[in-house]
Amino acid sequence: MSFISWQYAFLLAGVFALYWLLPWRGRIYLLLGSSYFFYGVWDARFLALLLASTSLDFFFGLAIAGHRQSLGKLILNAALPFAWLAGFRLFSGTTTVDNWALGIAAAFPFLFALVYSAMWRLQAGQRRRAFLLGAIVTHLGILFFFKYFNFFAGSLAELLGNFGWQPGWTLLNVILPVGISFYTFQSIAYAVDVYRGEAEPPRDFPLYAAYLAFFPQLVAGPIERPNELLPQFQRPAAWLGENFSRGLRLILIGLFKKVFVADNCALLANYAFDPETTLNGWWATLGVLAFAFQIYGDFSGYTDIARGSARLFGIQLSRNFFFPYMARGPSDFWQRWHITLSTWIRDYIYIPLGGNRGGKWLTMRNLLIAMLLAGLWHGAAWTFVLWGAFHGLLLCLYRLSPGLKRLETEDYGWRMPVSVAVMFLFTLFGWALFRSPGIGHFTHWLQAFGNWETSGYVDWIKPGGWLLIHIVPLLLLQWATAKSRDEIEFTHFPWVVREAGYLILFLLVATSAVSDAEFIYFQF
């Protein structure tokens, strides 16, 4: 169910209308039911995996905190994925659920109970570490199976084929569950934070299930921390008119970024990065510029809609973007772009590896590992891996070069505009890698800069104007929010100007053709 569909609008309006009429307990069940409905619309079979992850988190989190649960309760909850798949297969036909999936779901409660009981026999310190390790390994194993197995198996087969050996294994025919990368990272953060004593696990299964499956942020984040989001589910929110107005304005801004900016920029980016397109330098430049604003409008637009939707229920989600193309260096960029992912990588990978505590070269190693994994998180393709490696090398370069380091940290005189321009060029190079269908197409994009023929310039003028028409309003919006130091209310401006601005945004959305293009980050 897309955020820009009428189905989502009706769902959101219906849940909102009921939410404020119910007591706290009823709200939890309403959010849980609507979240499962929202996720099940993509593919009802995905719910089984989400239910399994929820059961694992709930019982392992309590175990890490030293709270043992009965095996009967554990088995009952862990049997939910099997019950769901069996019921779905019964009512929709035998071909919809594979026998191997049904078998795994049937065995899951008993294997879970066996492992759970065995871990409780360990000493307290060992037991806590065992449950933490079990949660992390299981979540990463599920993510690897669905998202990365075919990538690594296919890459290894291709490598071995270069040496004359043709392996006989076959690739898996599995569907990538929507949002699995996001809720997997949120689940791991929950287990680690409980282990560190930074979060208290709830003893209420429906409450935790509603927290993990909360529909505005389930499929593409933000990746929330338990100590920030869980307490908002544990206490009833009071009605505030400010939440309603700010929520609607955030949704409007998100729709503007997605429908008016991203989808129109996508027309140019898709053409430029189509393997069948004959590129020249003008179109290579136009294409990567268009994609830079497409992905920003698309992802930040999604986040705004998610945060606005949550705000209607009195729930505040984390800000994920802060004018990323104004970054003065790579470190600054990752404090502005996909903030909840970059802080997750920092807190759960980079710092545990040693961060910057082990000297210059160990710091470089840790940066490269962290960014390689960040690239791989985005997708099972070598272009994503190279994109992550590029940003890792860029972070290392800025740390090693005194001139670049000063350019990023000193903001007087000419340094500010130059540092922003340099980093934006680096960012564009990275986006070309990110958007290219393959490494071969990326080299084709690079080679296009050897051709700046005059006819190419003439052909570039009209689409260049199209791009400007759709990014200038975005830049004006960014300027207005930056000037007011408020991402929603343009408080620096008179009331009439503010309301006129929102009216213009509404008209731009209303007059734009709504495409069936999904949000880019839904695929991750």
| Tally of DSSP β-strands | 0
Give Rg in angstroms: 24 Å
Strand content: under 5%
Count the domains. 3
The largest pleated sheet is described as: none
Which structural class should the secondary elements be placed in? Answer: mainly alpha
- Tell me the span between the first and last alpha carbons: 16 Å
Shape: globular
Helix content: over 70%
Residue runs with pLDDT of under 50 for 5 or more positions: none
Mean pLDDT across all amino acids: 89
Number of helices: 21
Element pattern in H and E? HHHHHHHHHHHHHHHHHHHHH
Structure, explained:
The protein is an all-alpha fold and 524 residues long. It has three domains: 6-234, no CATH class; 257-324 and 440-506 and 513-524, no CATH class; 329-410, no CATH class. Helix content is 71%, strand content 0%. The chain has 21 helices and no strands. Helix 2 crosses helix 9 (205-213). It is globular. The mean pLDDT is 89.
Question: Which helices and strands occur, and which strands form pairs?
Answer:
Blueprint: H1 6-19, H2 24-42, H3 46-64, H4 71-78, H5 80-92, H6 99-119, H7 124-161, H8 180-196, H9 205-213, H10 226-234, H11 241-272, H12 281-311, H13 330-333, H14 339-353, H15 360-378, H16 382-400, H17 402-409, H18 415-435, H19 439-447, H20 454-484, H21 495-510
Helix pairs in contact: 1-2, 2-9, 3-5, 3-6, 3-7, 3-8, 3-9, 4-6, 5-6, 7-8, 9-10, 11-12, 11-20, 11-21, 12-18, 12-20, 14-15, 15-16, 16-17, 16-18
